[in-house]
## 1
Amino acid sequence: MDPPASASTTTTTPTTPQQPAFPSIKPLPRTPRSFQTPTKRINTGTDLSTFLTTTAYRDILLFLLQLNRSVCPRRSPAGGPATTYPLTSRPSRNSSPPPSAPDPGPRRFGNVSFRKWHELLADRAPALLSEHIPDSVLSFPTTPSSDPPSTPAGDGGGEPDTAALDRIIVLGVIEPYLRVVRRLILTYTLEPAGSHGVWGLDDHSFLPYIFGSAQLTTPVSSDADPMPTEGSVRGAPKTGDIVKPAVVEAQRSENMYFSAVGFINDVKKGPFWEHSPILFDVSGVKDGWGKINKGMLKMFNAEVLQKFPVVQHFTFGSLFSWNQDPDAAPVSQSIHAANQPSYNYPATTAPRPLRARARRRPGRRVLRAACLLRRAPPASPTRVNRRRPRPRLRRGHHRAQA
């Protein structure tokens, strides 16, 4: 086919071949939208299976993958050291109210003074948001401090670098939030609710292991490169160093993974393999932090997003929609989902007859009710003794004299 006439007279610049785009969340159309108040949708095991096919589940996973990739090291074009993103690369601000003094006396599930701090935070929340969010976002540069000044931010069209914004969320929002939570746990002796106990990673502190392992993976050259699934960045600590307290103390201020392990050492006593067996087993991985990062993502999907005790508290509205994802594959209901409550649906089986229950559990009340159904009189509770009474012998007489 001949090119159009306009193409023969216009000089075109050569373009590079299109690279595969990293999956990202599609922006919402700029049309008037009605706000939908978030509501609770997951009440039964069937709702859990439905959640796995919604656009909310898809968007949560994609957003997590984008945040995970944003803290992955970047390879230097000049062949120098790779650019890493430690915790000290972003300034932190402590905007939360200081904890109030705990009440005296031991508490089983934490000190009740935490409620006072929560009420104080709720009162100051609007002022804190309006005061700190604009300045915090504008104060972060769109490129890391170690990048050369000539490196343009974004795609050159005036749009900000989305990877830098994702790093702001991880290092400037999630990590400071975790520090506040850990401070509250130590101050008020709180006991976070977990669904696994010692034989698993706690649901409330899963993200630092994902992002912390991503900080130490093999560097990538561009956003088109796939996320490394093995290897580590040069100079990274070994995977087995999490059992060494000296290494943990040196790295906890630089890496989110070691920061979470350091907090475990602060609140738990005894051998590491005993109180944290899952992390101890993960420390034996020989393929580097990339392998650990891949496994943590799979574990988060299976043990957090697909578990009823966790996702039952999710709310869905305009941001996280309950609408079905047209590209979602059909999900078969797992044993875990089938064992969840179904109190919102009527029973599909009739109760057993009263007579059959009386045969299995012959209690006095059940037998009496069964007799009423048969219109038969109940049996006498007294037992008739038909045996001949034995004669009483006088003292000094033998049985033969009776």
## 2
Amino acid sequence: MLYHQQPTSLLKKIANSWYALILPMILFSLSARAMEKDENIPIYSSVPPYAADNMGSNLNPPNIGLPQPLVGFLPVIEEDDTIFSPTEASSQILLEDEKLPISHRLMQSYGDEEIAPKFGLALDGGGFRGYMEALWLKAFKEELESDTSEDNFTGPLSEVFDCIGGTSIGGILSLGIASNIEPDELVALFEEHGNSIFPKGSWCARLKNLGGVIGSKYQPQPLEGLLQAKFGDNTLKDAATPVLVTACTTTGKPKLFKSFFADDQGHKLWEVARSTSAAPTYFPSYKLTTHTDFFVDGGIWNNNPATLVAASMVKELHGGTFSPNNLYVLSLGTGDMSLHTTLSTDAGLFSARNIIELLMSTSSRGNHETMQTFLGETYYRVNPLITQKIDLAATDKETIRILKASAEHDLPMGVIKNFAKKFLELRRG
């Protein structure tokens, strides 16, 4: 399932060229490796290209299986059923990961018919444009609650998703959902606090840092105060469902905060949220009280965490066994800004923010293309094309109007409704 208003010519070329998939494969491989201390867990990123004539629409892509993996990966043992399982030795590695809580270590391999459907949620980074993600989460919750059957779903969204992952503003929203904060409250955060987090500022303040050219453009105190008010002293251990959040150290090392990773469980939620949202030139880096490194925005290396969510679900929830028929991922973007992220051929110092936007956009696209071939029709992506340039920190009324109109368009809302329908259908069995 896909809402992504782009011409299909490029996608056709991707579908017809094996080599064009190499970059997404590498991105997926690097994302998987970022799961610290999990290097021994095999992650599968070798997938075949398929015809993409309908990739630019909401039509279901064809059902795909996984071919023989690259040399060094484990062999496919149930090719007809599109399932592959780890070898006995690799399964033992899965069972002996002592850094994981016991509930995540007692895993075993299952056949396709024995694996219950699992649902993942991935939220892109994109500053204030994450307002659209909050609106979609609210619409998704309303769609679930509109079900009039006797066994209708009335719980929090943390009970829908088996794993939630986010980057930057998507990381904040992910932690919010994992903390059972209602979607309408998340929407209100943007509408009521956007201007205080991204103030226009005085001329004196702008001159002091040259608008973000030297030092960060915004002071972190308003954001930090809001995060502390919402999350309190809760830690990752308190998350109601498995959640992962991306960040990056100032030395360039990717970091993945995971609620199901013992070494991360003591980190306070608000500090993790602050770390993932420290976008360079916008906010200063952040050092957790429980960590020795300084962190910046996770969008630097992985702005669309869908691959991380899928890999974690395969490893932690399916015990290393994978079937695309039982793995559903809803991936929410913050708008395709590709029309506005082209760099000049001699980009310099004052192109820094455009470079950051380009990095984020490239990361999101690469992971999106990987997920399309990895899951096919069980991957639901919402990322409308934005025809007007909207800065990460734009919070004015016109920006809110544009974002809301884009989010409430029939096409993205159709994908949200279809995912809700699929969840309710599979929930009833």
